[in-house]
From TrEMBL, chain A:
InterPro entries: AAA+_ATPase (IPR003593), ABC_transporter-like_ATP-bd (IPR003439), ABC_transporter-like_CS (IPR017871), P-loop_NTPase (IPR027417), PstB-like (IPR005670). NCBIfam families: 3a0107s01c2. Keywords: ATP-binding, Nucleotide-binding, Phosphate transport, Transport. The keyword Transport applies. This is Phosphate ABC transporter ATP-binding protein PstB. Residues 8-249 form the ABC transporter domain.
Automatic annotation (TrEMBL), chain B:
Keywords: Cell membrane, Membrane, Phosphate transport, Transmembrane, Transmembrane helix, Transport. Belongs to the binding-protein-dependent transport system permease family. CysTW subfamily. It is found in: Cell membrane. This is Phosphate transport system permease protein. It comes from Lacticaseibacillus mingshuiensis. It comes from the Bacteria. Gene3D superfamilies: MetI-like.
Length: 254, 306
């Protein structure tokens, strides 16, 4: 495989909530146009780490962060860094589908509206493209102006993904996007992510190891605030180097 | 019959207790219902007597501008025109709500979104304290501070709709603010996260998502404030001037339904036209508060997230 360009690099990242150190020196790099899965037992810090990458942890009081995280070579925790611009570049999909209580249409163009886009044709086009990419266009094209809350959970989650795609980010962070969904909806989302891989860099936190093995190119295994191992997904699942990884993957704990 | 069968057929102690509790709470709620219905019946029977016993025309009651029930006009009809009071009541209510709303929403945003710690520890107790101040205190402050202030700036007596509006504005501000705070707090955190994660600034998130999601709750708060303003008697009576004239400006003495009621009800004889006319005003008030209530319910129902 040709060496791929790095989009996100992080070095020795520590994070603590008050006295509790949740991340104990994480160094991970993410390659362009591939899917990286973060796996590990509950409370191992993988979601916390993911939320560092677009600075969503800023919203929590009493958080102390050290280390270095660069997106496209730029330190995102440098003083004066534009968080709003960063979040446009690094989009996020949450565990619980969280559409706004607006119409499907308004949900998808929310990010564009924030950016001040007013032209109807551009917005219409963005809605169609994003919903098609999120593989939900056929299901909702006749009810774009109905409330997004009237959709099923799986549909809501895909609208949320379309909402992120409409902003055209470089990186998409997904925080256990299918854990609240049924197996069919999960499969739809997995297939969609595989389609999106060519255009976006995708980082997904998941509890579901089959999911990680099905869709990711690389996998990082987190345990107790540390990265035990990161490698090609095949190697992690078939031939892990570390004992802890092997134990976790074979279901001996976690 | 054998004793086991007998015991099974008898009501158990627990079932009896259950029944007793049910009866006690049923009694309490029936008492409240009876009291409310009795008030409605009493006010309606007195208030409608103006139209049925004293043969006052309903339309004239609502549209005439002269209020002196003891005097008959040229055509022999008693002069019970309630329009000045209706205009006065709606005037102070709407104006105070219009002024209070931006302040209340702004204060609530500050308390929940911008400085939640300060909001919870300092501002919330202050607002609750304001709700608890008796209306006579507001009226007294209005009388000794607001009225002279208006007199010095605009001339005239200082009494009038403007003074009433100002006093009511201060009175309903805490009500509307605390209800808006509740509405904003009820907006799920994940709406804010989603907006921020899409590159929204804090202000964009508040104005486009939080306020929009909280709108039914905020409207309910405003209508609650209006209901309170509409029904407030004492504080308004102290500053509005109590002249039953159709107001032509905001700084000349005027009156509201409540102020005429409080100043007049003790000086009339039960069963006389003067007395019945006041009951008609009370009936009007009651119907309006009913309307406010229905409005609140309607907004709440419309705003339910489906």
């Amino acid at each position: 495989m040709a060496k791929k360009e790095l989009v996100i690099t992080s070095r020795d990242v520590h994070l603590s909530y008050g006295d509790f150190e949740a991340l104990k020196g994480i160094s991970l790099n993410f390659k362009k146009n591939q899917i990286t899965a973060l796996i590990g037992p509950s409370g191992c810090g993988k979601s916390t780490y993911l939320r560092l990458l677009n600075r969503m942890n800023d919203l929590i009081p009493n958080v102390h962060i050290s280390g270095e995280i660069k997106v496209d070579g730029q330190d995102i925790y440098a003083s004066g860094e534009d968080v709003v611009a960063l979040r446009k570049k690094v989009g996020m999909v949450f565990q619980q589908p969280n559409p706004f209580p607006f119409s499907i249409y308004e949900n998808v163009i929310y990010g564009l509206r924030l950016a001040g886009v007013k032209d109807r044709a551009t917005l219409d086009q963005a809605v169609e493209t994003s919903l098609k990419q999120a593989a939900i266009w056929d299901e909702v094209k006749d009810k774009l102006h109905e409330s997004a809350l009237s959709l099923s959970g799986g549909q809501q989650q895909r609208v949320c993904i379309a909402r992120v795609l409409a902003v055209q980010p470089e990186v998409i962070l997904l925080d256990e996007p299918t854990s609240a969904l049924d197996p069919i909806s999960s499969t739809q989302i997995e297939n969609m992510l595989l389609e999106l891989r060519d255009r976006y860099t995708i980082i997904i936190v998941t509890h579901n190891m089959q999911q990680a093995s099905r869709i990711s190119d690389e996998t990082a295994f987190f345990l107790a605030g540390k990265v035990i191992e990161m490698d090609d997904t095949k190697k992690i699942f078939l031939n892990p180097k570390e004992k802890e990884t092997e134990d976790y993957i074979s279901g001996r704990f976690g | 019959m054998d004793p086991i069968q007998q015991a099974m057929l008898k009501k158990s102690h627990a079932a009896k207790l259950e029944r007793r509790g049910k009866l006690i709470s049923l009694f309490c709620i029936s008492l409240i219902v009876v009291v409310v219905l009795a008030i409605f019946f009493f006010v309606a029977s007195r208030g409608l007597a103006t139209f049925f016993t004293n043969k006052v025309n309903l339309w004239r009651f609502l549209s005439q501008t002269t209020w002196s029930p003891a005097v008959k006009d040229a055509s022999g009809q008693p002069q019970v025109g309630a329009l000045p009071m209706i205009v006065g009541s709606f005037g102070v209510t709407l104006l105070s709500a219009v002024i209070a709303t931006p302040f209340a929403v702004g204060a609530a945003i500050f308390m929940t979104e911008i400085a939640p710690n300060l909001g919870k520890k300092v501002l919330q107790p202050v607002i609750e304290l304001l709700v608890g101040i008796p209306s006579v205190v507001y009226g007294f402050i209005g009388l000794s501070v607001v009225v002279p202030f208006i007199r010095n700036i605009f001339g005239g007596t200082g009494f009038g709709i403007l003074a009433g509006t100002f006093v009511l504005f201060v009175m309903i501000l805490p009500t509307v603010t605390s209800m808006t705070v509740d509405a904003l707090k009820a907006v799920p955190r994940h709406y804010r996260e989603a907006s921020l994660a899409l590159g929204g600034t804090r202000w964009q998130t508040i104005s486009r998502v939080v306020l929009r999601a909280a709108m039914p709750g905020i409207l309910t708060g405003i209508v609650f404030g209006m209901a309170r303003a509409f029904g407030e008697a004492l504080a308004v009576q102290m500053v509005i001037g109590n002249a039953a004239l159709l107001p032509t400006n905001l700084i000349s003495p005027a009156s509201t339904l409540t102020s005429v009621l409080t100043s007049g009800i003790g000086n009339t004889v039960m069963g006389s036209l003067e007395n019945n006319a006041l009951w008609s005003l009370a009936l009007l008030l009651l119907l309006m508060s009913l309307a406010f209530n229905l409005l609140i319910r309607w907004i709440a129902k419309k705003g339910e997230i489906k």
